[in-house]
Amino acid sequence: MESIVGTMVGRESELEVLSAFVAAPGGAALVLRGDAGVGKSALLDHLVGLATAANHRVIRAAGVEAESELPFAGLHQFLYPLLTHMDRLDDAHRRVFDVVFGRGEGTPPSVMTLGIAVLDLLSLAASQQPLLLVLDDGQWLDASSTEVCGFVGRRLTGSSVKFVVGLRSEVPSGFDTAALPELAVTTLSEKVSEQLLDRHHPGLDPQIRRLVLDEAQGNPLALLELPPYLHGGQAGRSPGELFGYTGIPLPQRLQQVYGARIKSLGEPVRAELLRGALDGVGAGTAADRTRSTRYRMRDADEAAACGLLDIDPLGGDFVFRHPLVRSTVVQMATPNERRAAHAALAEVHRDDAERRATHLAASTVDPDEEVAAALEAAAESATRRGGAVTAVAWLTRAAELSENREARSRRLGNATLVAGDAGRLDQARQLVRSDTGSGSNDSPDSAVVPGYIASLAAAREDGDMRSAQRQVFAAIESMRTDGVREPNEMLTRLVDLLQAVNLYAGDQDAWERTHELLDSLGDLVSSRSRIYQDAWSDVVRRGAGVRERLEHAFSGLRDLGSSDGAKLALAAYHVDTLSQYRPHLQRTVDREVETGALTNAIFMLQMIMMDQIAVGEWDEAEHTGQRCLELSTTHRHTLFVHHTQAQLGLLAALRGQVDRARELQAAVDAWARPRGIGFLTQTADAIGITAALTEGDYEAAYLHAIGITPPGTFTPYAHQAPRTLLDLVEAALHTGRTEQARQHALAAHQAGLPHLSPRLALITYGALAMTTTDPTEAEAHYHQAEAHPAGPRFPFELARIHLAHGIHQRHTQGRKTARHSLTLAAETFERLGAATWAERARAELRASGLATRTTSVHLTELTWQERRIADLAASGLTNKEIGERMHLSPRTVSSHLYRVFPKLGITSRAALRDALSKIPGDQNV
Q1: Residue 239: is its pLDDT beyond 90?
Q2: Positive or negative torsion for Cα 204, 207, 210, 215
Q3: Residue 330, Cβ density class (10 Å: 0-12 exposed, 13-18 middle, ≥19 buried)
Q4: Which of 837, 842, 839 is nearest to 852 (CA)?
Q5: SS3 490
Q6: Phi first, then psi: what are they for 801, rounded to 5°?
Q7: Are strands 131-136 and 161-168 parallel, antiparallel or unpaired?
Q8: 777 vs 791: CA distance, rounded Å
Q9: Residue ranges of the HTH luxR-type domain (predicted)?
Q10: What pLDDT is stored for residue 285 in this prediction?
Q11: Among 375, 451, 511, 883, which one is most buried in terms of CB atoms within 10 A?
Q12: Cβ atoms within 10 A of the Cβ of 879, count?
């Protein structure tokens, strides 16, 4: 825009940055950010010239506001010219592109999966010639494409690909959080503005010249465009008379300038411009010249002559001179003119279901079943590709265009359900309210949608499981009364929601009533819902065969939506096979967070976190949990906020962050217990068990454990009952309750826990080994546990079994024999970051005669009270005597000593005096 015979006025620093950008070896990304008309497009044109001169292949794209809801519309602009390279990709990456661009079926890829495929494609394309990707008006790029472009832009180092984006400062964009390097494009100084104005418009009347400079405020586009407008009979008028009022933003004033030129054109040319503008013809350059389906403007020389269009020098097509020209054309058109243009464009895109449906919807006023059906099909396509937000808009429009009440109600119901899955409960409620009609023509399915949404809201926002249960039971009974005779999607949704609510409630009566209801429905309940029924309710009594059924269900990944994937993942968690399905969750979750089923995405993040905790990826679990917590809080998913806090509390307890663990435990318990949310109250108890075991407070651990289930049995519908098997056994053994410990281990074996899940097999054999009095039997069970193929997948539990085995060996087979198991335990605990457990294992190693390091960190971690108790114990006082002196109970004294021993690297009171003498500095009180 401010180009002057191959030079640019006042842009020396920007040009220097761009020259260095092109000349730099390797790949890189850069964002140019500035106000509309400030010269970003001109700088991008200059960059293209530099890159072309340096033998780069250049591909340009432009964000289009009309396409900002079309998933991957922007990405297609970049990739279409590279289609010839796709044949060189591996099969997996080709399938990714087939799914994204609607050429094949399959599970929509995550941002990471698609981003890696794009990187591979760009690398192939740049293998012979460096590649420059240029995106103008990036703020209008659709969300799906923005996510992928941001992912790719952060990973270009070492490639031969460069990526540049132009963004308007005043418009929010997904690139705002993409963490790409930025170059601010600011307005010109007064001196440079005068220079630019005088070069392009010499001899201006001083009054007009001053007016232009004052109005332009250093904006180059205004400096170039305002003088002709003022010369056109506007001289002598005040700025308020010229532009309506002086406070109007400069881009709108420039649109008035372009509007005057558009009005001077003939009707056919204006119609041609409108079709081009609504279809996103490239601004400034032919951003889409490689797309054969993009509308090509014809017979528009008149518009080019008055400075509204340019000619692409390579393709010869008309292109808009600036994005503001395009937006002005659309704003000036009448509703009838826009509808006519959309109708013409729908015909142009008759082979593109989503694009055709978009234009048909915009061209139609009266109900039209053909258009409504086209929109419904487009919504289904968008949902499959991760565009649930777009699908809601299309389904809502389809409902508006439906020709009968039943079709309208059905489509609004579907829109409501998709909005609910996307975590947009406010929008879902609004859609429910908009479906105010009732009568014989209503869809039977849509009649239960309000209850479904109300149940979702009650559960997610308020944690009111009892209300949610009542509403879902009623909705299912209503459908049965209406005579549902075959499997039905709405019925399946209700059945699955009821079971999810029951899972959180953990209420035995509700589950038993649900089993009766589902039994009465028979074949109307899907095979997947039966998996959820058995895995979510009571895995001890109903979990036989679930693993095999899960494998069969996951084998049909192509047919799985994000909702089914999340539910199956939860079932896999209950039988401890989630790890093998985690890649599916990770492929899905990033896509759904931005434009899809947000609720499912949050839930899948929780599943990923829970699996990361189980397999020992604790740093990654912390990161996932914080991301999940942020999303849940932002979108007011109160239930998921507390679910995530519960898992973060469990993680903190495992890592020895006991104060944080107990703080989270208290927060979760205070919210969940009054609401009767057994899933969370049990998890809170599990936090208490883990924190107490970490501290060596086995009495407290035992009391927490029996709050979940008594020894010797597994409370029905208590999901933590089998999961805390090893905790209860170990706490019982350390508090002298050997009979209860043995009963519990035997009960686990008799209940068939080893056949239900690999983790339950591991800890059942460990519990049997710890509780038997027969050394030969103990060794056999320890071998069963330690040799179990799933052992390495559950490192914390395996390390605990190694530790117990080493202690057993030291007492029965001698110190040397014990060292191998104890070493394995210590190394695993250290790798995981379970500091207290690692210190406990090292203390046992030292007791076995093997020298180990004792960190001074732990030696100086004694609190004042711990040091006082340790000193008194070292002097020979009993726990009772210490308690009398310090006004503490003997159990509290014992708990403190359990924490002191691993900190000092010892296992007995006899070693206290020597250990205390080695503490650096003077800690005496």
Answers
A1: no
A2: negative
A3: middle
A4: 842
A5: helix
A6: -70, -40
A7: parallel
A8: 20
A9: 855-920
A10: 39
A11: 375
A12: 21
Question: Exposed, middle or buried: residue 857 (CB in 10 Å: 0-12, 13-18, 19+)?
Answer: exposed
> Could you tell me which of 622, 608, 585 has the C-alpha nearest to residue 832?
622
Residues ≥6 apart with Cβ < 8 Å to 472: 451, 452, 455, 494, 497, 498, 501
Among residues 153, 155, 157, 156, the alpha carbon closest in space to that of 165 is found at: 153
- Report helix, strand or coil for 183: strand
CATH number for the segment(s) 857-917: 1.10.10.10
Token pair 């457990």 is found at: 837
Residues near 163 by Cβ (< 8 Å), separated by ≥ 6? 27, 28, 29, 30, 132, 133, 135, 149, 152, 153, 156
Contacts of residue 507, defined as CB under 8 A and 6 or more positions apart, other chains included, come to 465, 676, 678, 717
Q: What gap in Å lies between CA 67 and CA 279, rounded to an integer?
A: 8
Answer positive or negative: Cα dihedral of 429, 431, 436, 438. negative
Question: Residue 329 — pLDDT band, cuts 50, 70, 90?
Answer: confident
Q: Output the CA torsion 746→751→755→757 (10° steps).
A: -90
Q: Which runs of consecutive H residues, i.e. helices, occur in 506-581?
A: 508-521, 527-537, 539-542, 546-554, 562-574
3-class SS string, 832-859: HCCHHHHHHHHHHHHHCCCCCCCCHHHH
* Strand positions, DSSP E, 268-387: 309-311, 318-320
- CA-based nearest residue to 791, from 810, 818, 764: 764
Give the DSSP H/E element, type plus range, for residue 869: helix 864-874
Assign domain 3-184 to its CATH superfamily: P-loop containing nucleotide triphosphate hydrolases (3.40.50.300)
* The pair of three-digit structure tokens given for residue 653, joined into one six-digit string: 């307890």
**Is the CB of residue 114 less than 8 Å from the CB of residue 96?**
yes
SS (H, E, C) 659-691: HHHHHHHHHHHHHHCCCCCHHHHHHHHHHHHHH
* Cα dihedral 37, 40, 45, 46 in deg (nearest 10): 120
> CA 285, CA 789: separation in Å to the nearest integer?
61
Instruction: Return the residue matching tokens 């558009």.
Output: 262
Q: Per-residue pLDDT tens for 677-707?
A: 999 999 999 999 999 999 889 999 999 999 9
- The residue type found at 595 is T
* Spatial CB neighbours of 877, under 8 Å, sequence gap ≥ 6: 885
Q: How many whole angstroms from its chain centre is CA 712?
A: 41
Cα separation of the two ends of the chain: 78
- Other CB atoms within 10 Å distance of the CB of residue 362: 18
User: Cα–Cα distance between 683 and 665 in angstroms, integer?
Assistant: 8
Contact call for residues 898 and 908 (beta carbons, < 8 A): no
Question: What whole-number distance in Å separates Cα of residue 209 and Cα of residue 417?
Answer: 59
Segment 644-666, tens digit of pLDDT: 999 999 999 999 899 899 999 99
Distance CA 475, CA 481 (A): 10
User: pTM value?
Assistant: 0.60
Nearest CA among 124, 113, 31 for reference residue 79: 124
- Among residues 866, 914, 875, 917, the alpha carbon closest in space to that of 894 is found at 866
Which residues, including other chains, have CB under 8 Å from residue 694's CB and lie 6 or more apart? 653, 654, 656, 658, 834, 836, 837
Beta pairing class for 309-311 and 318-320: antiparallel
CB neighbour burial string for 898-919, b if at least 16 within 10 angstroms, e if fewer? bbbbbbbbbbebebbeebbeeb
For residues 56 and 143, the answer to whether their CB atoms sit within 8 Å is no
For residue 849 the two structure tokens come to 């005669």
Q: How does strand 3-4 pair with strand 131-136?
A: unpaired
Closest CA to 764 of 777, 782, 739: 782
Identify the H or E element spanning 393. Answer: helix 388-400
